[in-house]
Specification:
25% helix, alpha+beta, Rubrerythrin, domain 2, binds zinc ion, three-stranded antiparallel beta sheet
Amino acid sequence: MAKQRMQQCLTCGAFSLQTVCPKCGERAQAAAPLKWSPEDNRASLRRKMKGVEEKDWPSQLATLPSLQEMKQNHASEEE
Ligand SMILES: [Zn+2]
């Protein structure tokens, strides 16, 4: 069976799984993902989802080893 994608009619906006709209007979195309916007209109939603405003959020971030550790590792690699 062919891969089925949600299609949306270019004319009336109806959704279906066919490339021809069942409502008006016009062409339908794959429903597009959310539009990318430089203004990032959903940024506040994403921040909420990820809990960026929580107090302990920074502690979940990846960190680099300390400079001292990096120097030690580098030295041992050269030996
Ligand atoms: Zn249509």
